[in-house]
Every structure is written in structure tokens, then in C-alpha cells.
Design a protein that fits this description.
The complex is a heterodimer of chains A (about 200) and B (about 230).
Chain A: E1 2-11, E2 14-24, E3 29-33, H1 40-48, E4 55-60, E5 63-64, H2 69-75, E6 76-79, H3 91-102, H4 109-118, H5 134-147, E7 152-155, H6 164-179, E8 183-187, E9 199-203
Parallel strand pairs in A: 3-8, 3-9, 6-7, 7-8
Antiparallel strand pairs in A: 1-2, 1-4, 4-5
Chain B: H1 3-27, H2 29-50, H3 54-87, H4 89-94, H5 100-129, H6 134-161, H7 168-179, H8 181-195, H9 201-229
Classes of the chains: A alpha/beta (about 200), B mainly alpha (about 230).
Chain lengths: ~200, ~230
Amino acid sequence: MLETLDLACLRGDRRLFRDLNLRLEPGWLLRVEGANGSGKTSLLRLLAGLGLPAAGEVRWQGQPIRRQREAYAQALHYLGHLGGLKDELTPAENLRIEAALAGTPAVDEAAIAGALAHWGIARQAPLPLRVLSAGQKRRAALARLTLSPAPLWILDEPFNALDVDAAAQLGRLIESHVAGGGLAVVTSHMPLPVSPARLQTVRLG
Amino acid sequence: MSGTAATPSLRRALWATLQRDLLVTARHRADAVTGLVFFVVVASLFPLGVGSETRLLREIGPGVVWVAALLASLLSLPRLFVADHADGTLEQLLLRPQPLALLALAKVAGHWLTTGLPLVLVSPLLGLQYGLPAEAIGVLALSLLVGTPVLSLLGAVAAALALGLRGAGVLTALIVLPLNAPLLIFGSGVVQAQMAGLPVAGLFSVLGALLAIGLVTVPFALAQAMRIACE
């Protein structure tokens, strides 16, 4: 269970939000809405533990995330605006290193090839990420998400740069993740191509 | 997770971090070679500037090689974190279950292997250029072997602190150069002592102590600097 208690965020002198109380149970999708600059990304970074809130705290399974960095890191998969993959390496090399860093022993070559094929970039597997299109890079980052065993997904504008098919596929992936008891927090400035049974929405700004 | 179960996963993660940096450098060979060429060129220009008097060259040789190594390491520092910051791998590193200080240390190890170690390996050639005796050349290479990891360690903290700022390169140099003064003094001092027939063990102990202190303290400072850079 992910909770925020009276969370507040400052950006320079401007207060983006305050007294934000959220509660996300397993099996739920939290959609974060808001105009550009309303603090969606800032909220997600606070939830991931990448920044310190101006006030309040974020809790995971009832404990502040600051006090359980290791356990929270194992439970979390964060996908930001930046893909977190190296341009010089091929998608397969990137995923292999990610699997080693995440400590997921179940991810072998077959799983990596499968994830790349699932996202339609099997043919690009031997090419450095640098020569791939923006959408294909995003697909590589999503292939990483497919391989992640983390129960909590925090995805910042994951539908950006994706074509209609890939967006629908990501929608299905998120739906099956929450249907299987996972939690997901997703921002989007457009209508989500997702309609899970249990959807919560928070509007910023 | 229990301590015994975490160990192999930590080792695997450290190796993956190092391997990624080595792979990226291998795909950008020109970058790695630049520092080395700079080192050789700077050290080779001095004899042209000060003349070819053997005694003078022998006297300034160790100091010049050490200063050139310091500057060459400075040249490569911006590369250490800027790309990681821009492509999001740095923020992903902060979200790992493994201790950030150790992951940061793996990155520093990668930096040293690709920028520091090559300098150590070519330094005997530069020693020859300055007409240093064979034993002094050995001491010079050894002093660099112990000293260049310290350059990478201190440089990494400065690079992480300056991350995202304008004029980061200059700022990094301003932070790093004074901090490296002791290293420079003892590093070139040990070679000069050897040539003067003085014992060198004590000076080597000081260099070793600098490295040991750096290895123990720097990773934590580095981890904090990386967190600040990503906030």
C-alpha cells in the first residue's frame, strides 16, 4: 500500500500542491492529472523517493520510504521522462545490465529476447539505442518494465512517443499488472487508453 | 532480504555498473584516448620549452609528469556523470536496492580503469624522455599507480557536485586542483627522494594512506552529491 500524508511540494517560491493525502491499495491504478507545470512529475519523483518533500511524507506498507530504502527500491519500478537506458548500448545489452542491477535472476537471454519481440523491436536488438527512433527507445524502456517483478509501477507520461498499437499494448500491460494485484501510478495529459476495474484519479493544479 | 542472499546480487550489480561504463567507453574510444594523448603531449612539450639540459629535465620530470596526469584526469571528469544525468541512468542508480556509495565506487573504478591506468602504463616512456634512471622510472609509475585512483575519487565528487551547473568544467577544476595538492607534493616528492638516494617507503605510506582515506570516505560523499544532483 502506498500512502502520502499531508504531502507538499515547492518549486522555487511556488507551491505546486499541499496537504496531499493519497492512499493506493494493491490492485488499483492511480491516475495523476493536471495541466503542464501543475506538478505531476514532481509528485511522481517524490513518490519514487527522488526528492525530499517540503512537508509530509510518503509511506510504503505503512513505513516512511526514507527508512526502508532497500525494501522500497525492490518494490518499485520508476520510469521517468528519461528512459534510463544507454544510447551507446544495444537494447539487449541495456536490458541485460538492468536485470543484473535489479537483481532479477529469472531474466535470462530468452526473457530479454521475448520482451524485445513483445515490443516489436527484436530486429533492432543488435543496434545501438542511439540509432533508434524516439518511439523505439521508449519501447526498449517499456521492455524493461515488462521484465520487472516490482509490484509498484510509477510511470511518468509512459504513453509519450508511442504509436497507437504500442499505446494500446502498454494499456493492456498496466491493466493486467493491477488486475494481478499490482499498484500503478501513471501521469498523462491525455485520456488513458486504460480502463481497469479500480481506478483512482487525482487532479493537481 | 537476508545478508547472505544479498551478497551475490550486490556483486552482480557492482559488476554490471562497471561493465556498463566500460562498454560505453569502448564505444567512444576517441574520448578515452584524448586524455592519454593530452598527457603525453603536455609532458613532451616541457623539454622543448625548457631546453634539453639533462640535470634540469631530471629535476622537473617527476613534477611535470604528475601535473600532466592531474590535468589529464580533469579533462575526463565531465564525462563521468553528464551523460548519465542526461539519459536518466543516474536517477535509476539512486533507485537501486544496493548501497549507492558502492555503486558510485564501481563507477569511479570504471573511470580509473579507462583514464588513470593508461597514464600509469605510458608513464615509463615519459620518464625515459626526461632521462630518469631506471629505478626512478619504476618509482614514478608506482607513485602514479597509487595516486591516480585518488585523482578519480576526488574528481568524481567534484564532478557530481558541479553536475547541472553552468561552467561545470571550470568549477570542477577549481574544486579538484587544491584538493589534489597533497597528492601532487607526495607523488612527485617520492620520485625526487628516490633520485636523491633517500628512503621512499615513508612517502609511499603517505600516498597509500591518501588512497585508503579516499576509498573509505569518498563513496559516501559521492553518493550524497549524486542524490543532490538528481533532486
